[in-house]
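Entry 14: structure prediction run for Molybdopterin-synthase adenylyltransferase. Input pasted below.
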Amino acid sequence: MEPITGKTLTDQELLRYSRHIMLPELDIEGQQRLKAAKVLIVGLGGLGCPVAMYLAAAGVGELLLMDFDQVELTNLQRQIAYNQSAIGKPKAEALAETLRGMNSDCVATPIVEKASQDNLLQWITTADLVIDATDNFAVRFAINTACVQAMCPLVSGAAIGLQGQVTVFDSRQPASPCYRCLYSPEGEDQLRCAETGVLGPMVGLVGTIQAIEAIKVITGIGEPLLGKLLLVDGKVMEFRTIKMAADPACPVCADSC
Ligand SMILES: [Zn+2]
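Run finished. Output tokens:
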């Protein structure tokens, strides 16, 4: 995996991130890579809020925050970055404001746009990593296609009810499957939180795991969930990991495999 070239840390940053730097596998070098990293988060709901907050707190240099929705009262049960006073504001702008208050070193750029094949590719080519935190299958497929085209790693998460799942795709790795290897646009029931409900902390849990995976991919520490799908069953609190292989006939990634 191509490591991100780090950026030098100031004395203030060495202090601020000291609990990271103490970790032997992360160290100053890992923190420097976080500072140099630019992450695009698509979907700023229950998953996007904790991902963005943890990545901003962790010292990621730049976050691109993409969502065209506005904060609604029904979001506040799980979308923990928003205050009641944010109701009616675009999520991307409200979240950027929250993140700036948490860490002024992190450049938070709001993108109040509906994700489409065209604008996704444009933003993804400028990013080192993408987080799929959407709840819409069409957008998930579009993000996947753009990430494969741009050879950009993708941390994908989903939650519904008391169930969650997380995985990492990385087109730079020859054996990595992509989202389209696993799911077909025709075969999916379009279940969304809006119709079926979700337990608030479940999206928090899944989003937090996405943040951990993102930090691992950026810094090169540990083993990301590459070729593995983590399934979380909140009802019995069971974590399972299943292996996934690339589909040699995948219409999106087969040529690059
Ligand atoms: Zn594929």
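Notes: Residues 200-219 form the longest helix (20 residues). Will compare against the previous run tomorrow.
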